[in-house]
Amino acid sequence: MKLSIILFAHGDVDSKEDILCGWINLPLSKKGTAQAKKLSAKLKKEKIDVAFCSDMLRSEQCLVEVLAHHKKAKVIIDPRLRGRHHGMLTGEKQDVLKKKSKDIFDLVHKNYHFRVQGGESLHQMGERVFPFMTAVLHLMKKEKVNVAISAHPNSLRLIMEYLEGLHPKEVAEIAHHPEKHKKYLLEFD
């Protein structure tokens, strides 16, 4: 039996600056809501039985828009899907950080093992995202359900690593765009 997992990232957040949001609980901006509505239209004909999102408002709002065409989908909020905790850099303006130290900016964005003081690396995020995915696949097989996941760019990178067996260098290069999604068809016995 083939079942699907559809992955997508929330859109733009309501912030005056382009900051490292991390665990700051920001809502979607008007643009982010419009991005989610466009994504919803693209996913209108997909079969979604169970939908997951993080406990961050922007992830939940994106999922609400997508599920406008999937009223019967069961929703599960799971904090393991949160984005990366940026520690002492949380709230830092990205353009300022890039001007201050391009090396640190690049480490934050492209290094799998780099951890900012008080934060977490992508590798450490995997310690919560991979068990989440194991549970999702178990649910899919047991309940025979199609799944959608509304999350954050970094948690989606790790889900893709889990599903595709990617190398950490490949994971750090993945970019996610609001309004776009990735669909996996998985074969279950």
Structure report:
The chain is α/β, with parallel strands linked by helices. The protein has one domain (2-187): Phosphoglycerate mutase-like (Rossmann fold, 3-Layer(aba) Sandwich). 42% of the residues lie in helices and 14% in strands. A 5-stranded mixed beta sheet has the order 3-2-4-1-5. The chain is globular.
Task: Give the rounded overall mean pLDDT.
Answer: 94
The largest sheet is: 5 strands, mixed
**Oligomeric status:** single chain
Enter the CATH topology name: Rossmann fold
Given the C-alpha coordinates, what overall shape results? globular
Query: What is Rg?
Result: 16 Å
Tell me the strand percentage band. 5-15%
Per DSSP, the total helix count is 7
Supply the number of structural domains: 1
Give the number of DSSP strands. 5
CATH level 4 superfamily: Phosphoglycerate mutase-like
How many angstroms separate the termini? 6 Å
Low-confidence stretches: none
Structural class: alpha/beta
The name of the CATH architecture is: 3-Layer(aba) Sandwich
Share of helical residues: 40-55%
Run of helices and strands: EHEHEHHHEHHE
The CATH first-level class comes to Alpha Beta
Largest beta sheet: what is the strand line-up? 3-2-4-1-5
Characteristic key phrases:
189 residues; alpha/beta; Rossmann fold; 5-stranded mixed sheet; 5 strands; 42% helix; globular
Question: What topology emerges from the helices and strands here?
Answer:
Layout: E1 2-9, H1 30-42, E2 50-53, H2 57-66, E3 74-77, H3 94-100, H4 102-110, H5 122-143, E4 147-151, H6 153-164, H7 168-173, E5 182-187
Parallel strand pairs: 1-4, 2-3, 2-4
Antiparallel strand pairs: 1-5
Helix pairs in contact: 1-2, 3-4, 5-6
